[in-house]
Predict the 3D structure of the following.
Amino acid sequence: MPDSPATPRIGLALGGGGARGLAHVHVLEALDEMGLRPSAITGTSIGAIVGAGYAAGMTGAEVREVVQATFAKQADVWGKVWQLRPKTFADLFGGGLVQFDAEKTIELFLPAAVPDRFDALTTRFCVMAADFYGCQEVALASGPLRPAIAASIAIPILFRPVEIDGRVLIDGGVVNPLPFDRLPEDVDVVIAVDVVGMPVRPANRPIPNATESIFGASQILMQTVTAEKLKSRTPDILIKPAVDLFRVMDFLKAMAILKSTQAVKDEVKRKVAALLEGRAAAGVIDAAGRSP
């Protein structure tokens, strides 16, 4: 989608964080209501899923509708999860732990509006994954789209890795949970949305159980990676929705997540408006929001 001469070039980075990333919906709606459409989008894990819908031309309201329709009925959700169950004894017992197929998960849960290839999107889009054997981050921005998203959500233990072009890929949150540094240099404003959250100590237990330890350790890792990156470079606008009380797999609490983070929409509007007004007043950008 080409930029309008009367709008700034927005770069939008949507971070990983599992169900907590449903809060990204408010950011999309805020930009829509301001008449701003991103020039480029990057996404990690849940940010890759939400970002793909937005890059495909969906509005924030349409993404919200998909979320509400997908997670409104527990029976429907569990029906899809049942389709993801291991079908053979080799799948069930071969690796020591049961893992879901990330590519099939994407096919079941991704909006139909998302195309099969990157070049069919209306906005520049980049997905982050981690090369397991290469021990490095991988930015996927061309070729088949859905396998790339599957790789980006392939959280260790939960999902089997995804192989693309000979590389074995896992969850992008391991290496780049907030990929604002992967946005192109030609954007005027960089907005990054951090939905990792912090582990919350349960009131009824002195120490976390096994599942809480695994996902909590992942949160600590992603927070550490992001904190180190922010020491050398910062986005123009950093949004951190209040998602600490929700867990990675709390998708059945989708409505509660959207309700508790709804203040994000006004926060985005205030910060974007203040930034553009301040830059225009300082002559850093012109009245349209573009860098001279």
